[in-house]
Each structure stands twice: as structure tokens, then as C-alpha cells.
């Protein structure tokens, strides 16, 4: 038995539409929309976190700068007290113990000022980093030169 052979010819563009895949395509579309919303929320969370970090760092920097200024005034007052105490001791009106106590107070004030100065510098670096700054090591070339 011989079956008939048929040949088909197509002229022009062919169009293929998925007729019975409507449910699956709608589900994929909803999935993609949900993924897009999730990505937008993650981006928003990242941006808000960055703004929060910048705000906190600016606040810490400002507070520490004010503290450093106050400590600098304290160092100047302690230095003046040491000079007066030393003058009184040399004139015979004070004791050596008073002069040493004033010297110890001056050294403690200077130590606090130095710590505060270091904290100001660290907060400035944190702010630079929070704003997206970067730096190169000694052996690296800047990005602009590359």
C-alpha cells in the first residue's frame, strides 16, 4: 500500500503563535513583574541605607569637631594653670606637688585632645567612604590615568 505524499509550499513570512500557552505566559509575566518590584525595593533599601550612613557619619563628625574645639580650650587653660603653678612654686608660694599635679592635668588634657583629633580624622574618612570615595595605594595609578 502506498501512501500519498503531499508536499507543502510556503511563500512569505510564517507566523507562529503559542495558542495554548496563555496561562503559562501570564504566570511568567507576573513572576517577572514581582522580580522587578523586588529589585526596586532592594535598590530603595540600599539608597536609604546609604543616606542613613551619611547622616550618621556627618552627625558624628560634627559632634567630634565640637568636642575637639572644647578640648583645645581645656588644653590652653591647663597650660595656663601649669604656668601659674610653676611660677608660684619658683616664687616659694606653692609646692612642687601642686606644679606636678598641674603638669599631669595638662598631659591628660593633651591626650584627650589627641584622641579627639584622631576621631575627627576617622570620621572624615568614614564620611568620604560613605559618599563613595576611594583611594589608591602607593604603587597604584589613579583611575583617571589608566
UniProtKB/TrEMBL annotation:
<dbReference type="InterPro" id="IPR003423">
    <property type="entry name" value="OMP_efflux"/>
</dbReference>
<protein>
    <submittedName>
        <fullName>TolC family protein</fullName>
    </submittedName>
</protein>
<dbReference type="InterPro" id="IPR010131">
    <property type="entry name" value="MdtP/NodT-like"/>
</dbReference>
<dbReference type="GO" id="GO:0015562">
    <property type="term" value="F:efflux transmembrane transporter activity"/>
</dbReference>
<dbReference type="Pfam" id="PF02321">
    <property type="entry name" value="OEP"/>
</dbReference>
<comment type="similarity">
    <text>Belongs to the outer membrane factor (OMF) (TC 1.B.17) family.</text>
</comment>
Amino acid at each position: 500500500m502506498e501512501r500519498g505524499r503531499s508536499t507543502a509550499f510556503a511563500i512569505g513570512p510564517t507566523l507562529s503563535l503559542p495558542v495554548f500557552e496563555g496561562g503559562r505566559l501570564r504566570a511568567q509575566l507576573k513572576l517577572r513583574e514581582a522580580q522587578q518590584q523586588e529589585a526596586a525595593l532592594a535598590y530603595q533599601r540600599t539608597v536609604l541605607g546609604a543616606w542613613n550612613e551619611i547622616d550618621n557619619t556627618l552627625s558624628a563628625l560634627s559632634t567630634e569637631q565640637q568636642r575637639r574645639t572644647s578640648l583645645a580650650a581645656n588644653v590652653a587653660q591647663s597650660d595656663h594653670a601649669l604656668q601659674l603653678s610653676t611660677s608660684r612654686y619658683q616664687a616659694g608660694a606653692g609646692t612642687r606637688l601642686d606644679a606636678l599635679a598641674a603638669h599631669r592635668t595638662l598631659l591628660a588634657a593633651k591626650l584627650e585632645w589627641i584622641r579627639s583629633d584622631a576621631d575627627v580624622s576617622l570620621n572624615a574618612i568614614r564620611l568620604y567612604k560613605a559618599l563613595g570615595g576611594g583611594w589608591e595605594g602607593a604603587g597604584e595609578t589613579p583611575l583617571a590615568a589608566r
